[in-house]
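We modelled each protein-ligand pair independently. The example shown here corresponds to the ISC entry; the chain sequence is given first, followed by the ligand as SMILES.
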Amino acid sequence: MTTGAAGQHTLQVQEPFATSLRRGLPLVWATGSGDDLTATLGWGEAFRATARGLDRFGTLDDAFTRWAARQGPDANPVAFATLTFAHDSSAESVLVVPQLIGRWAGGVLTVASQVAEPVGARLPRPSVPGEFEELELLPGTLTRQRYRQAVAAAVGRIADGEVEKVVIARDLLATSPDPLDVPALLARLQEANTASWTFHVDGLVGSSPEMLVATTGDRVHSQVLAGSAPVTGDVGLDDVTATRLAASAKDHAEHAYAARSVAERLETVATVSTRDPQVKRLRRIMHLATDITGTLHDHHSALALAGIVHPSAAVCGTPTDVAFRVIAELEGFDRGRYAGPVGWVDARGDGEFVIALRCGQVTADGTAIRLFAGGGIVAGSVPSDELAETARKFLPMYEALSPVDRP
Ligand SMILES: C=C(O[C@H]1C=CC=C(C(=O)O)[C@@H]1O)C(=O)O
């Protein structure tokens, strides 16, 4: 043990990332690969706030700010948060300040206490990997057929002029007779999705490629994704697909709604510049991606900024309020935290929130995970193509849950 700058103990452990993930079931935020893999992990609970309704962002932000102010001027505690997509969700939005915060980089886990007098805060010992799970994949609320029908209905509403773009999602339930080995799931997600942010907050687990908002000081950044095409692993074929995606009028139209929604909302609080869309290639799918950067006029925490830009048209639609209502009507299920912001924020307000995509929510008893995937519907969208696109968006979770082929 050594003494840190804030007068608190720090501990360094040299170990692989997968071992750090096995110490209890930490809160997790991880990205990168090889020597560039970095992660923030949290253990224990020094403070927890929950919120519902339209003001859930403000409620959590205020609660954290008040709690952090009581920790003394030198402390800069980090909180993890996951917020629901819809204000009227039956799920809770949650913010947790872990007692211990660990930063993993270059094979070394550096752990510090976030509270002056941690009560029973001890870095858990690594656990043994669980038995391989026999997973059963069950249809969710929207079966394949009902998903295609919902997309067709959305295309009809667009043709009628009710809405311009709407994102329709479906769900799947993966069940196991035994509790899921979440650390193993997280390790596999991180290994396979190094250009994404792998997270675990309050049972929400996934690897999202879409940075909703990241802020350091007065600088703010967002990378909007919308418009998709498959990645096969055959580089020649994928190059052709990328060229086609970059030239697709339909995908650019779908993308532009999303990029505009974020840029317009950030412009209310920052001086913003928007780059031209590029193709961002992931392991199984590629997207059109627009980087938006800005300088904030006044202080806003990352959590407050997430509340300003959420829900973007990458997960809701245009106009926002109409698309929100159409989603409720056509999907007919509660998205919970899927498509809501998930990330971390510190007491200075710096932080990163991705959109909770390519993810699932572990059930309370730990033996099932509800997976979600959706797609942006615009004029010209074809239901069977959209179904195939959602199947591809399930792959990061599905492959991490089912790492070996079984007959
Ligand atoms: C809604 C999802 O993806 C969004 C992000 C990127 C591309 C999208 C699309 O092309 O439809 C979606 O807007 C999802 O993964 O569930």
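Confidence is low (pLDDT under 50) at residues 1-7.
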